[in-house]
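Please predict the structure of the following assembly.
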Amino acid sequence: MSEGGPGSEAGPEGASRWDRLLRRLDVQPRPYRALLSALIQMDLRSVHYGRSTGVKPDEPLPPLFWVTGQLLLVSFLSCGFLFGRVDARAFALCGLAVAALSTFSAIVVGFDEVALDPKDAPILGPRPLTARTYAAARITNLGCYVALIGAALTLCPALSGAFLRDAGPAWLPTYVVASVAVCVASAALALLTILFFARRGHRLSGAKAALAWMQIAIFLAVVYGGQLVVRGGKTELAEWAASPPSAITQTPLDVLARAVAWSAWQGPSLETLGVLGGALALALGLTYLALLWLTKAYAELASGPLQRAKIAKSPRAGTVTGALSSALLGRRRALGLWWITTHFRRDPGLRLRTWPMLSLAFAAALMGVLSERGADPFVVRDAHSVVPLLALGLIAAALPQLALALRIGEDPSASWILRSAPLSEPGKFMGGVRLGLMIWTVYPALILIGVGFAWSWGSVSHALLAIAPAWLLSEATAQWSLVRVLRGLPFEIAAARGGALQPAAIPSALATGVAGGVAALQFYAAPNLAVYGALVAVLALGALAVGASSAKAWRRLLAPEAPAAPSPGGAA
Amino acid sequence: MSWRERARTPKGQAQFLVALFAAAALASLALGLARPFFEGFVRERYPQPSAAAIRVADAAALGSATPAALGELSPEDFDAVYRAFMRQDPEVAGPVDGQRGDELPPAPSGPLLEPSAFGRLLFAADPERASALLRRTLIVGSAAQRERALLLTQEVRGCAELSALLDWASERAQRTRDPQADLVAGAAERVRQ
């Protein structure tokens, strides 16, 4: 980026007022408009949100549209569940907390797109663009983004809250001021956090990928929490909101919520106006600090530390764990395990493609326990004990989708290197891959849900008994799913092509049916331990049989001399 | 220009975003204007009490139960006795029975609990727990449930826990413009005497 250029000279006499203002600020109007337009179009195609919203590059409505819709929906649903159940203070507190969390995550996720991307330097460097013009376009773009997110998070509580019993005409302006202060302060804090880590060489790519799912997590919390209140008749939330604990009442958010509620009830007072003014001043102060850091980062963009992303440590050969896994599993299996583990460690996208597949099992287990439908099947003999068994079965049912997620890779062309490697025993190598998949996804889920059931039922042995069939079924389903869905080496397909569920549709349906059937058998076998033991033994034999047949299938699918697939025309 | 073509331009996408905000604004206004509808869903649920609680409730209705007998109950059974009282007016308790929880409790067949005498007994047995039960009803109960629960305080005097609760509830009812604010304030005044 040059410090002067053709756009920085005085413009024609007929320039608009806006252009004259930009020139007075030493900003080139035309490059500024062009860059801002490009940045806004980039915002609309945010890559991280593209993953979390499932929007493909060829779809007309961009990820940002769905993200804005999600924010409006989360905000509206939380208002709907709280409306009439809590007073204005709790209503404001909830709205402001959702706004603070969502704005923080939105800025972290969209930082590269909206605030600062180190890749800009090589692209814009040769162009006649001053550093100040670049900074102005970036900051305007950031302002637009924060305004959009803030508006989506403010609209619903500001309008519906005005009709609360204890709200008056002052609700709308005071809530809007408080929400603007919270969104701006939260955005500034997010910027300061990212810049702080960026100066130390951390790009926070894992955190960005994880926070892209924050809205989905808040959405699920609102929907499931709302169901517990409305359908389950849980009263704890309303009782808690009527007199929150001191840990909440001392937070700045609650102070602000109290000021909003008091103004809405009695009209604005000097004290409440002081609180709102203080919040705005704090937000502006944080924004000033964030913009100072950001401007400094823009100046350093061409050669500064921001470009130096921390390079991931390469795996060290000859470690103790490597030797142990080779001894225990054999060299081929240990190699497959190391390979898949390295992918899980390095690629946050892979974790994000796989872990959410298990959310249904966790949701079912949680709903079962919280709605008192999660009874111990070895003690209670009625419908109250079905949900835990189904929740465990859902882990196995997710395996075809997990296998499908393994097809997609960040660098699919690298799979040719693996294809050309002398893979003498592909069945064992894929056995290691399967073990890695289980270690990173299924085993933690089984353990977490099992610990939850052990705590809920007060019996570790019953939890272990309930988990055993689910574990054996998961082993068999994993072997079968990898053969049926993957049908080759993992990570061979580019991420942009990863949307089609077709290869996993029928295996998923079959796996869900079998998992449901096994859960039903568990339920009926639970009263008699001998019958239950026979069921576990049958499942273990089944898992061994599936393992043997899948090893054969892998030898056929990945054999070096495997004939090429016939061409569509059939001409050979 | 089809909507797909329009959506591919920045202007078209801005229009879609404006439409999204307009829809959200309308939905929020509809939510606010339908307050009576939403308040109709706010009520406390009183599931079937335990057999032990029903026995104590029957004894209380016949005048043979003592505060000590009530105080010896487990916390769950103590709550269940309160539920038994609320369920004696099925319309007030609302639908809670049946497989889907959509049936009213059955009409009471045994002796009925007299609210003021039962309230005296309840607050004498365990004022802290009885106040907690009343507090829950005052926060999450429907208007009819709150009214019935307040009947329990008619003949209770000088109970510090209840007095503190009703002072707090009265201030809250005034603040939230509760239609029963005067009823709560009256109860607070009476208990304080």
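The mean pLDDT of chain B is 87. Residues 163 and 189 of chain B are 8 Å apart (CA to CA).
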